[in-house]
Amino acid sequence: MKNDFVWWRDGVIYQIYPRSFKDSTGSGIGDLKGITEKLDYLSDLGIDAIWLSPINPSPDVDFGYDVSDYCAIDPKFGTMQDFEHLIAEADKLGIRIVMDLVLNHTSDQHPWFKSARRSRDDSCRDWYIWQDADPSGKPPNNWHAVFGGSGWEWDSETEQYYYHMFYKQQPDLNWRNPQVRNALLEVFRFWLDKGVKGFRLDVFNMYIKDDLFRNNPTKLIGRRPFERQIHLYDFDRPELMGVLSDIRQVVDAYADTYVVGETFLGTPEKAAGYCGEEYLHACFDFNFLESKYKPQPLLKAITEWENALGGSIWPNYVCNNHDNPRTATRFGVGEDDERLKVAAALILTLRGTPFLYYGEEIGMRDIRLKRSDILDPIGKRYWPIYKGRDGCRAPMQWNAEKNAGFSSATPWLPVHPDYLKRNAENQTEERYSLLNFYKQLLVFRKTHSALIYGDFQVVSGNSPHVLAFKRSYAGSTIMVILNFSDKPHEIILPEQIADYSIAFSSIERTPKLLKENSIGLSGSEVLVLVKH
Ligand code: TEU
Fold it and tell me: What average pLDDT does the structure give for the chain?
């Protein structure tokens, strides 16, 4: 390992959805003390940072993504002291804290918005986006909300529309107003002063909208009106770059800090364009979240991402988050985890920061809910076409005890019924569990610099089921071979593999030496070779 370890570049970031990780109070909702209790588990797993989904006070219309106070902790998660304690305890284990900042919009219960809607002359009025109705009383333009319907909500008291990209309880802030910008930059400083090392910026590319409020052009293809628009004017406006550079300056005043942006409707090129020394350190590329379990589309996503970033911007990879079905549900077959080992090996051996999502390491499956039990408002609205995001937000499965050891009370979302067998405690004991696979591979990654710093070269094998690539750094080379098929495959590699030996495999392999350039792979095998 180089001695200039940069945690966000060389390490692994683990996302926690705090409501669902560990409840220490018996409320049915996870909390900060619960996370602190589980730091040893996270340290054993081998992660370097925790990204916490929002922990600010929130009326929970969008479960934390509607914030009513940026500089406080929601009492359901604990106190500011609990948060400071979490930072201090995590720091002892070399784990940094990344906060999720939701700065495109506030909750409609935020004092700024409550004030703004009082009158057109209110000092906070211009902190949000208000427009008169068009002459027929309709919204001022055709912009749609991501979560359905017009993006404009009529305020009958003050007789103007306000704009909301998401739910109507999430009014968008006016980042063009310098007072707003300063207030939001102060939010960064507030958390940096507490020892927070990184930020994940929710839908940052929506901060600035067209100043002339022009209509988006429309197209014929798309399921919903939102998707039948070409979003020229409601986000990705050029003035955003100035905001990003302001943010970067604030964050750069503190050592070892990091900002990763969630690019809404991002392409690799778009995401790359928002990164750089003056802008964000990184942005997400979500192609893996949408990809099929097949080498070709995954390789296409990797190549596009690498090309767009052009060598100077550091990639990252994410297979799971709180908005999408889990890989275990998308890729897994029944309760079998072998394919998940292949997916884990991919994300942990590519060139780029791996982002893991709580429960991914034990292969948690999405829960299924009856319509009447759905909590996510977009799930209620679009059922049965779209069932919302509750499925991937179920309580962490710690053990086989009541409520999977998550809480002594009824959890806010049901625990997946497979918890009696599938839980962290069992998987710690089982030698070949998914959890132990993640742990071993994370140790291997930490002790093999080529997997972190090495370049990325595809190795063309002769099987469409196998993805093979090499990572080389400072004279050492590692070859990763992933069999995406559940069946055995013999592959012929285009170079002499006699120079390599087996360093890591998902199955027992003897002897450890390879002959010539052909390898017989078991179904779903992960094979990592080191060149001697
Ligand atoms: O997500 C933005 C976003 O792209 C999602 O809303 C996506 O369209 C949706 O989940 C459908 O799959 C961020 C947060 O990650 C999400 O949880 C919030 O609801 C949203 O912003 C609003 O803050």
Answer: 96
d(C-alpha 129, C-alpha 112), whole Å: 12
Expressed in angstroms and rounded, the spacing between residue 322 Cα and the centre of ligand 1 is 9
> Is 450 part of a structural domain of the chain?
no
Please tell me the distance between residue 109's alpha carbon and the centre of ligand 1 in angstroms: 19
Q: Is residue 518 part of a domain?
A: yes
Catalytic residue among 202, 234, 285, 376: 202
pLDDT tens across 336-348, in order? 999 999 999 999 9
- Shared-domain flag, residues 361 and 482: no
Does ligand 1 come within 6 angstroms of the Cβ of 166? yes
Is any atom of ligand 1 closer than 6 Å to the C-beta of 62? yes
Catalytic residue check, 202: yes
Q: Is the whole model's pTM more than 0.90, yes or no?
A: yes
Ligand 1 center to residue 271 CA distance, Å? 16
**Pocket mutation for ligand 1, best pick of 167, 323, 382 (most atoms within 8 Å of C-beta):** 323
Q: Rounded mean pLDDT of 295-309? A: 96
Which CATH number do you get for residue 16? 3.20.20.80
Instruction: Note whether residue 254 is domain-resident.
Output: yes
Both 95 and 118 in one domain: the answer is no
151 and 248 assigned to the same domain: no
Quickly count: other Cβ atoms within 10 Å of residue 523's Cβ.
15
Structural domain count of the chain:
3
Contact 182, 175 (CB under 8 A): no
Look at residue 48 in the predicted model and tell me its pLDDT.
98
* 3-state secondary structure (DSSP) of residue 57: coil
Closest-CA residue, ligand 1 atom 17, reads 323
Nearest-CA residue for ligand 1 atom 3 is 264
The residue segments making up the domain with residue 134 are 111-163
Q: Which residues pair with 161 in a beta bridge?
A: 131, 154
Q: Is 285 in the pocket of ligand 1 (CB under 6 A)?
A: no
360 φ, ψ (degrees, to nearest 5): -60, -35
Report whether 390 contacts 495 (CB < 8 A): no
Helices and strands of the chain, counted as H and E runs: 16, 18
Is 262 among the catalytic positions?
Answer: yes
- Structural domain contains residue 169: no
Same domain, 128 and 273: no
